[in-house]
UniProtKB/TrEMBL annotation:
<feature type="transmembrane region" description="Helical">
    <location>
        <begin position="289"/>
        <end position="308"/>
    </location>
</feature>
<dbReference type="Pfam" id="PF04307">
    <property type="entry name" value="YdjM"/>
</dbReference>
<keyword id="KW-1133">Transmembrane helix</keyword>
<feature type="transmembrane region" description="Helical">
    <location>
        <begin position="196"/>
        <end position="221"/>
    </location>
</feature>
<keyword id="KW-0812">Transmembrane</keyword>
<feature type="transmembrane region" description="Helical">
    <location>
        <begin position="255"/>
        <end position="277"/>
    </location>
</feature>
<protein>
    <recommendedName>
        <fullName>Metal-dependent hydrolase</fullName>
    </recommendedName>
</protein>
<dbReference type="InterPro" id="IPR007404">
    <property type="entry name" value="YdjM-like"/>
</dbReference>
<keyword id="KW-0472">Membrane</keyword>
Length: 325
């Protein structure tokens, strides 16, 4: 899920702790802040720190004025072949920055059935990933590189490289002789572990056990939320070395699940604070709150969405980027 969803999830965990609500009522929101920080901490560690220290065996940096897809395809296929020979190989696909707010987009497809890598450069897009008109390169050639190795991919087969920092991969031969394609190997590894969350909670408990409970709950909720996606997490590091595959119920960048999650958390926070008020002006139950504020509005939205899809005739495509797994 997106950062805002993890952030509000951590606040929600804190709202379930009576001492957090009581302390906030007395003017000290420390436990709510602690929950928010712990809720977003795993991604903060990965994206703001750890990825900058992760090394790559092969780094691909296409030149903005020399859009030849073949060297890119050859480099990816080389990484696959090195892994098939028994050497774990890490690879980085750099983005192509055109100017302050524009990037050249390209796509890399690792096709296990065809045994080939296909690369093609696309349009220039803004930082908001909006394609610029008449920006497709001419000629728009396709780079193709063959490899003779069985591939096992836990995520998608096509990767879009456009804005900010490009994606990373780790290729490694497993016990079955297949080459595992590990997407963003520096992400959701040791930082997204229940054991790490418990360790942090244990250290915080030296100060007060109440802080430890908030940190443990917020951290674990983050890991559980991420497990709903495709990539999964290394849940029991250091006892496990690899990420447990996700349940593939959603992509982290999907707007609707993120919005529903954030809205549901807001309702839970409201309810927990409401329950702490001694003499509220208006009385209602939890079921009534959920029906009026969650079930009915989203049911209406679902019906309208289906009607619009039928009129339009197609579902919008989800673009897979390094931030959307």
């Amino acid at each position: 899920m997106k950062g805002i969803a993890h952030f509000i999830s951590g606040v929600t965990v804190a709202s379930f702790c009576p001492w957090a609500v009581e302390t906030a009522q007395n003017g000290n929101p420390a436990y709510f802040i602690l929950g928010a920080v712990a809720g977003i901490l795993p991604d903060t560690v990965d994206f703001k720190f750890y990825r900058f220290f992760y090394s790559h065996d092969i780094q691909i940096e296409p030149h903005p004025d020399q859009l030849d897809p073949q060297p890119v395809a050859d480099a990816v296929a080389k990484a696959v072949l090195l892994a098939a020979e028994g050497r774990r190989t890490t690879l980085k696909l750099a983005t192509i920055k055109m100017d302050a707010d524009n990037w050249r987009q390209y796509r890399v497809r690792i096709d296990p059935e065809a045994g080939e890598v296909r690369v093609q450069f696309g349009p220039i897009v803004s930082t908001g990933q909006v394609p610029q008109p008449d920006s497709l390169p001419e000629p728009r050639s396709v780079g193709v590189a063959k490899f003779n190795a069985p591939i096992l991919q836990s995520c998608e087969t096509t990767y879009t490289v456009d804005i900010f920092d490009g994606p990373s991969f780790a290729f490694q031969r497993n016990e079955a002789g297949e080459v595992d394609v590990d997407f963003l190997p520096w992400h959701r590894n040791w930082s997204h572990s229940l054991t790490v969350g418990l360790a942090l909670a244990g250290m915080a408990s030296i100060w007060t056990w109440k802080a430890g409970v908030v940190i443990a709950g917020a951290y674990m909720v983050h890991v559980i939320e991420d497990q709903m996606g495709h990539m999964g997490s290394n849940i029991l590091f250091p006892f496990t070395k690899k990420r447990l595959p996700g349940f593939k119920m959603m992509h982290s960048g999907d707007a609707f699940p993120n919005f529903v999650g954030v809205w549901f958390c807001c309702l839970l926070i409201f309810w927990n604070i409401y329950m702490a008020v001694e003499n509220p002006l208006y009385h209602f139950g939890f079921i009534r709150l959920m029906m009026y504020a969650m079930v009915i509005p989203f049911a209406v939205f679902g019906v309208l969405h289906q009607l619009l899809v039928r009129i339009d005739g197609s579902e919008p495509e989800t673009q897979t980027t390094e931030w959307n797994i």
